[in-house]
């Protein structure tokens, strides 16, 4: 049993992390924004000092990728400065920090999957702010940065829920086939994050479900899992998106979970199995 502070506890990943920790019998402080504003340094230090967790799992972030382009200050506060405050607090009581990051720290130009040691080169404000958060976390030796991608969970807004709504409304479905990544389901991420925390790993690790797919291909899988004909989904290019997105997306977001395997763990299950379970 461990004592864990989960920030961003109301989000789709935080929600499942809290649920899993509870099932494992851990002592959990589920901190959504009403409990803890992670951008407030004094509040972060106070909560950590008073509650004295063994581990802080930071699921808090501002993930509105396009909105970040127009508000650099808020993006940096939420995704970078907040991580520093959490790391400082953890260091003061010798707690461990598990910080969640993103594929957007890469530029997406690599022709194969990204490993943890690959050079970062974010192309958006969101990616830049998340990389700054990684660097802040890694200044402390008890920190682990876990990069994931295309996150989907039962308790939040994500591509699966969007497609469900569009199908129910009878809307047309056109998705890009020139952006490729690995869908990651919170039901599988949550147990893996606890395991990494228990094993006291540090540094950077990639963690996704198995299987690379384009957004077009992923939406076809969702439509099929909903019992509809996937041929209703039309493929377009990023250049054809109307209106164009303010933030540049990585064309290749595939993360190789190399360190996870090096630490002796089996790859997370294929995303299609996780998708079916989520919809069930």
Q: What portion of the residues fall into strands of 2 or more residues?
A: 15-25%
Give me the strand/helix succession.
Answer: EHEHEHHEHEEHEEEHEEEHEHEH
How many strands, which pairing sense, and closed or not: the largest β-sheet? Answer: 6 strands, parallel
Termini separation (Å)?
30 Å
Given as residue ranges, the uncertain stretches (5+ residues, pLDDT < 50) are: none
Q: Using the 3D structure, state the CATH architecture of the domain at 3-157 and 183-208.
A: 3-Layer(aba) Sandwich
Shape: globular
Category by helix and strand content:
alpha/beta
Helical fraction: 40-55%
Strand order of the largest sheet: 2-1-3-4-5-10
Average pLDDT over all residues: 97
Radius of gyration from CA coordinates: 18 Å
CATH superfamily of the domain at 3-157 and 183-208: NAD(P)-binding Rossmann-like Domain
CATH overall fold name of the domain at 3-157 and 183-208: Rossmann fold
Number of helices: 10
Number of strands: 14
Q: So what's the CATH class of the domain at 3-157 and 183-208?
A: Alpha Beta
């Amino acid at each position: 049993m461990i004592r864990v502070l989960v920030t961003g506890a109301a989000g789709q990943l935080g929600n499942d992390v809290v649920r899993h920790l509870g099932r494992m019998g851990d002592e959990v402080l589920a901190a959504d924004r009403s409990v803890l504003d992670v951008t407030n340094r004094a509040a972060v230090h106070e909560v950590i000092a008073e509650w004295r967790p063994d581990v802080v799992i930071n699921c808090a972030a501002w993930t509105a990728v396009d909105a970040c382009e127009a508000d650099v200050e808020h993006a940096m506060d939420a995704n970078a400065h907040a991580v520093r405050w959490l790391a400082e607090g953890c260091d003061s009581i010798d707690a461990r920090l598990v910080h969640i990051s993103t594929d957007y720290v890469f530029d997406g130009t690599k022709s194969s999957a990204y490993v943890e040691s690959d050079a970062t080169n974010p192309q958006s404000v969101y990616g830049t702010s998340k990389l700054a958060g990684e660097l802040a976390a890694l200044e402390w030796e008890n920190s682990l940065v876990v990069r994931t991608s295309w996150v989907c969970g039962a308790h939040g807004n994500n591509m699966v829920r969007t497609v469900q709504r569009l199908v129910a409304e009878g809307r047309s479905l056109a998705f890009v086939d020139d952006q490729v990544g690995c869908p990651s389901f919170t039901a599988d991420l949550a147990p893996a994050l606890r395991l990494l925390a228990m094993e006291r790993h540090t540094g950077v690790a990639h963690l996704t479900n198995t299987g690379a797919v384009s957004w077009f291909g992923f939406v076809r899988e969702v439509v099929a899992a909903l019992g509809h004909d996937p041929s209703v989904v039309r493929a377009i290019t990023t250049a054809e998106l109307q209106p164009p997105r303010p933030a540049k997306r990585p064309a290749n977001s595939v993360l190789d979970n190399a360190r996870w395997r090096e630490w002796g763990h089996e790859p997370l299950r294929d995303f299609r199995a996780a998708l079916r379970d989520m919809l069930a």
